[in-house]
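PROTEIN DESIGN WORKSHEET
SECTION A - STRUCTURE
LENGTH: 268
TOKENS:
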């Protein structure tokens, strides 16, 4: 892919609150269709139609584009969101996140991580040892941005996800986002559940674990969701980490394995 790449970002709000956002990294022939699809998404949001939609298109500096790989995906089935959160905490601990930090993230997402008690626009940055919040703005958070798939990788991903009944925008976009987050050396792991009231699945991602989908991380009808990016101890410059998450372009040209589903078993 030697054509110019463009970062396409959408941010929609309703009632002065964040409603929906999306990011893509793509070439010129796809821009119009993708932008139209994002406008449609914001207008048809399950929490109500967007009242304000911002679309930003920016050419990215070709010299800065890194190549990336999607993490392997597997699913752990859990009976309900309580078991899902227990599983998420256990997985995070396997990835080197302290129990304190894992609990702090889960509690914040449960309560609504922005100061208004609603979902944030972006992610929390959480110190992987102390559990302290590190993002400079607790409403906006940090948005992972400027990432996307090559057309070949996108087609192969859809084929592999389809074989597992998982070819939907939630999973596709979250895998790309997790790849971007895990490509930043200062980040150890990610936890996510959606703010879409109808979508209860979520995931934990880390280099050691890949992308582990948990079938329930919140009850149906719950609008509070969000993301936590866990920052490695001794990470150094937090602004450098934010700059990489938000501005450094990552083009994914290789996808990982899409595994099956197994029930989660608590280790005793
Ligand atoms: P979604 O998976 O789109 O339902 O998003 C769930 C939550 O994750 C949102 O409410 C945001 O708090 C957060 N989020 C969504 N997209 C991003 C992103 N690109 N970077 C960081 N956080 C995000």
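SECTION B - SEQUENCE
RESIDUE ASSIGNMENT:
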């Amino acid at each position: 892919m030697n054509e110019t790449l463009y970062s396409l970002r959408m941010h929609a709000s309703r009632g002065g609150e964040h409603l929906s956002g999306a990011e893509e990294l793509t070439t010129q022939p796809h821009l119009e269709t993708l932008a139209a699809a994002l406008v449609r998404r914001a207008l048809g949001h399950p929490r109500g139609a967007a009242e304000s939609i911002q679309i930003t298109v920016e050419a990215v500096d070709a010299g800065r584009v890194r190549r990336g790989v999607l993490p392997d995906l597997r699913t752990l089935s859990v009976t309900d969101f309580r078991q899902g959160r227990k599983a998420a905490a256990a997985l995070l601990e396997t990835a080197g996140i302290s129990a304190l930090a894992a609990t702090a993230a889960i509690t914040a997402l449960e309560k609504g991580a922005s100061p208004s008690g609603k979902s944030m626009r972006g992610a929390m940055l959480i110190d992987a040892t102390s559990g302290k919040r590190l993002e400079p703005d607790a409403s906006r958070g940090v948005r992972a941005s400027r990432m996307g798939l090559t057309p070949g990788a996108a087609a192969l991903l859809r084929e592999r996800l389809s074989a597992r009944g998982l070819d939907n925008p939630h999973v596709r976009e979250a895998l790309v986002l997790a790849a971007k987050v895990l490509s930043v050396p200062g980040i150890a792991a990610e936890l996510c559940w959606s703010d879409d009231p109808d979508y209860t699945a979520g995931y934990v991602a880390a280099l050691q674990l890949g992308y582990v989908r948990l079938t329930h991380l919140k009850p149906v009808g719950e609008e509070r969701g969000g993301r936590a990016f866990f920052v490695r101890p001794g990470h150094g410059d937090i602004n450098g980490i934010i700059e990489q998450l938000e501005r450094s372009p990552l083009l994914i040209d290789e996808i990982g394995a899409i595994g099956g589903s197994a029930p989660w078993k608590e280790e005793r």
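SECTION C - NOTES
The chain has six helices and 13 strands.
The radius of gyration is 17 Å.
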